[in-house]
Write a structure and sequence with these properties.
557 residues; mainly beta; 7-stranded antiparallel sheet; 42 strands
Length: 557
């Protein structure tokens, strides 16, 4: 059936001698050429739509919403901007006989690419017989020189079977999108293969829950969160963990709300065990009639309370009183970062320490070594410094991080410095935190990120150590001690602060320390691959930043 034209046309051209009227032949050739040009435009449009559909499905899976919906200047489709700042273009389609060869099919909640035969969606498969998800590799459509559809998933273009032993011929005018309807709360996408997608539209309403990424609840406890609102018409609780209670009270002024969350009891209820953790999802509808981004709070409940050391002045519960108008934690931030009076003084001895009194009960002070007590011996310093330019990170900016804020958008955090290695360098100089009241408790987790000084070293290298090569790594190690000063038996996985392949950690990442069990003190050390060592021992700047230290408290404490 195929490629007959490529054989017959050259044969007919041999008879173009004097007196032969070849007008009909050339008209046929021109018709074929015009058809192929039309099909090339169809292919270009459909490849754009394939990419748009892929973005659309990913937006649905990721919970994105539409921030802008406008008609193209040509009037032939729409330009749609999503909340992740991606923009897609969708064209008006034609249904019926010109339904496209490529479409989607949903199987167990996942959308897969499919080809359409007689209105039926047949899932496309890779060479191993696996279905190809829409959010995976982007297929590239093409046509051969006779107008038959081909598709390439990265392993070369292949013809698409028509289910009857042949291939599918492109007709022109195909479009994956049949109709797009701009509704009140949603934009609805009607596909030519019968599939329907919906994406919510963003409202100008604001609904900001003053909470952290993860909020801990003791069983049966109720916690109240402030919510900053603007232009909110209504809110709907879409999802809660099993047997958790959520109540939202909107202020009549429309500019404030309270969110009350109650954890369940740790018992069987109606034959079901209440969920210990989960996500609360709240939908917000604006006064302009549109749907706003869904707000979420991740919650977990346990049989213990959780105190959080954030290094923020508002969270300080101790007895210290300010004499200079600054809060407790902010008063501990030195200036300049290196050589400042709080951390270095006269370079022999300073009394720099902190105590989270009445909250986590954690404390820390600088290490004393070689007859001096200053930060270069080791310790933990409070900071709020930021330096995004990694190439400028050095000892003068030792208290800076690359990110713009502390964990969860806060102002303050802390920077630890110090190490001990097999070469005997800096013995007993490890930075540590401990419970000043003498108690032993579980430190559940901390959030960690790189300092700019450390990030510059592993990225660009220095005169002491090379840039971290492929296969290289730097780890933080946590060591626990009981109240008698003996190492505890519990251990935790080291925190991977940098790798040669991925570079330094630049965002705040949680480090689970609960595996240490109950401790009185935790010390932190830095270690890594051989490239981090020279003839003097560990040679990389042993700085790291941490924030949001979570400590467990039980009823008997």
């Amino acid at each position: 059936m195929k490629r007959i034209l490529t054989i017959i046309i050259p044969a007919l051209l041999a008879f173009t001698s004097c007196g032969y009227d070849d007008a009909d032949l050339w008209n046929a050739v021109d018709d074929l050429d015009d058809r192929l040009k039309t099909l090339e435009q169809t292919v270009s449009r459909m490849n754009t739509e394939v990419s748009s559909l892929q973005t659309l499905v990913d937006a649905i899976d990721s919970g994105y919403f539409i921030t802008d919906f406008t008609t193209l200047s040509s009037g032939k489709g729409y330009s749609i901007t999503l909340s992740n700042e991606e923009t897609i273009e969708i064209y008006h389609g034609t249904a019926g006989a010109d339904a496209p060869v490529l479409g989607t099919t949903e199987i167990d909640g996942v959308y897969y690419w499919a080809y359409i035969v007689d209105g039926e969606a047949v899932p496309l498969e890779d060479g191993d017989g696996n279905y190809l998800p829409v959010t995976g590799t982007t297929p590239v459509l093409s046509i051969d020189d006779e107008g038959y559809w081909m598709v390439d998933y990265g392993n070369g273009a292949e013809y698409i079977d028509d289910g009857n032993g042949g291939y599918i011929m492109a007709k022109g005018g195909e479009s994956m999108f049949d109709e797009v309807v701009d509704g009140y709360y949603y934009v609805t996408f009607y596909m030519a293969d019968g599939t329907v997608f919906r994406l919510p539209k963003m409202s100008t309403a604001e609904f900001t829950i003053e909470s952290r990424k993860r909020e801990h609840f003791k069983y049966e406890a109720t916690r109240t969160f402030n919510v900053v609102t603007k232009g909110v018409n209504d809110v709907v609780v879409v999802n809660t963990p099993l047997f958790w209670t959520v109540d939202i009270e909107l202020n009549p002024s429309g500019d404030f709300a309270t969110l009350n969350i109650t954890a369940p009891s740790q018992v069987f209820v109606s034959g079901n065990l209440a969920q210990a953790e989960g996500t609360i999802v709240i939908s917000v509808y604006g006064q302009d009639g549109n749907f706003n981004v869904r707000q979420t709070v991740y919650t977990d409940g346990m049989d213990y309370g959780l105190a959080l050391l954030t290094f923020e002045d508002d969270d300080y519960n101790g007895s210290w009183e300010s004499t200079d108008g600054r809060g407790y934690w902010t008063s501990l931030i030195d200036s300049p970062q290196y050589g400042g009076p709080l951390l270095y003084g006269d370079y022999s001895a300073v009394d720099y320490n902190w105590y989270d009194e009445g909250n986590t009960e954690l404390a820390s002070e600088l290490v004393t070594a070689w007859g001096s007590t200053v930060f270069w011996n080791g310790g933990i310093a409070v900071s709020n410094y930021h330096l995004a330019d990694i190439g400028k990170g050095d000892f003068d900016t030792q208290l800076s991080i690359v990110g713009e804020t502390g964990c969860d958008g806060s102002s303050n955090f802390s920077v630890g410095f110090g190490y001990s290695d097999s070469y005997g360098a800096f013995p007993g100089s490890l930075p540590g935190i401990y419970f000043r009241d003498g108690g032993e408790r579980v430190v559940e987790s901390i959030y960690v990120t790189s300092t700019t000084y450390f990030a510059n070293d592993v990225t660009n290298g220095s005169s002491f150590s090379p840039a971290l090569p492929s296969g290289g790594y730097v780890h933080l190690i946590a060591i626990g001690y009981d109240a008698s000063g003996n190492p505890v038996s519990g251990t935790v996985q080291p925190f991977e602060l940098a790798t040669g392949a991925g570079g330094p950690v630049l965002d705040w990442q949680e480090w689970d320390l609960s595996g240490l069990g109950k401790v009185n003190r935790i010390e932190f050390n830095m270690d890594g691959s051989a490239d981090g060592y020279n003839s003097y021992g560990w040679a990389r700047p042993a700085y790291f930043a941490f924030d949001n230290v979570a400590v467990r408290f039980y009823d008997d404490e």
